[in-house]
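We were asked to recover a plausible sequence for a given structure. The inputs and outputs are reproduced exactly as logged, with field labels preserved.

PROBLEM: sequence recovery
POSITIONS: 315
GIVEN STRUCTURE:
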């Protein structure tokens, strides 16, 4: 059956490791930065993702950079226009578009460069011309500029529920990248009736009754960045990888652990149990269940909160 909508450059779906607010895969600490949930007054300059010869299919990049530029203006009072073309290329945008998580990860990894450092082509351009390979030594220079930006800013992102209640809540922290069929845009205000969004096709401010995906990208000044060992996801016996290493680093800083490997194994379980018996459980029955049943084989949201709070006290 033929699609009833045109795709302007968004691919649907999360990466398996993408944090998701409210789920066991993690949640960024919620911070009410803008109690009104309305970001219209600090929106960036209007831009288009197309020209007469073609479309960049980079709506995800434009939407996410619009959100970053909005946050930076809100935090510093200064508007800086960043190169959409740079992140569209570094996130490997295809002729069919890109994923929200992949563009967010490129921002987090490569940082941003100013529009004048890598502008869109000066004459009419096709998709291929917009996304052509970046020659040397320009590529090295742009990578260096991006890393300088990352010395000032820390970037975190997570998927969120896309119902209006969720959007209204998370808008109090940051503008949101949202998806309507075939297109990614920036949600700058939401009410119980309608979602207001900032678009890369005129008219640039529009409304919709609902969206089908949403992501929150949060910009932190480097000096206010989250502790790199803060626990953001629940863990359990048998888990492997970077999040287990983060747990080990956190416990080590708190004086509870010293061992190699990235696996949640029997040894780590014993350390977790000892930590929870000493710091988390405050009644005899909770201690009984931990010691004889759970035996340190999981880290849940309550445990994470306790460890994160203790890490904050050690800073």
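RECOVERED SEQUENCE:
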């Amino acid at each position: 059956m033929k699609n009833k909508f045109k795709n302007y450059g968004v691919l649907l779906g999360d990466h398996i490791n993408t944090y998701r607010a409210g789920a066991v895969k993690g949640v960024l600490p919620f911070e009410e930065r803008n109690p009104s949930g309305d970001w219209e007054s600090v929106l960036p300059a209007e831009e288009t993702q197309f020209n007469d010869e073609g479309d960049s299919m980079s709506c995800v990049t434009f939407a996410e950079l619009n959100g970053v530029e909005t946050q930076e203006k809100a935090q510093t009072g200064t508007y800086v226009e960043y190169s959409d073309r740079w992140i569209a290329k570094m996130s490997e945008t295809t002729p069919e578009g890109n994923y929200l998580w992949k563009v967010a990860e490129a921002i987090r990894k490569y940082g941003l460069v100013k529009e004048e450092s890598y502008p869109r082509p000066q004459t009419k351009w096709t998709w291929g011309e917009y996304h052509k390979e970046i020659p040397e030594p320009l590529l090295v220079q742009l990578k260096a500029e991006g890393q300088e930006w990352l010395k000032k800013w820390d970037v975190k992102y997570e998927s969120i529920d896309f119902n209006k209640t969720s959007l209204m809540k998370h808008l109090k922290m940051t503008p949101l990248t949202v998806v309507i069929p075939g297109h990614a845009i920036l949600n700058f205000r939401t009410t119980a009736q309608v979602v207001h969004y900032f678009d890369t096709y005129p008219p640039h401010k529009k409304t919709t009754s609902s969206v089908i995906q949403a992501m929150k990208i949060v910009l932190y000044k480097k000096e206010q960045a989250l502790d790199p060992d803060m626990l953001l996801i629940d863990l359990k016996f048998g888990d492997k990888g970077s999040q287990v290493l983060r747990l080990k680093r956190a416990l080590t800083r708190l004086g509870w652990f010293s061992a190699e490997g990235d696996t949640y194994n029997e040894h780590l379980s014993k350390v977790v149990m000892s930590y929870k018996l000493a710091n988390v459980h405050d009644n005899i029955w909770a201690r009984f269940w931990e010691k004889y049943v759970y035996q340190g084989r999981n880290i849940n949201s309550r445990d994470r909160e306790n460890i994160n709070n203790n890490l904050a006290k050690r800073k």
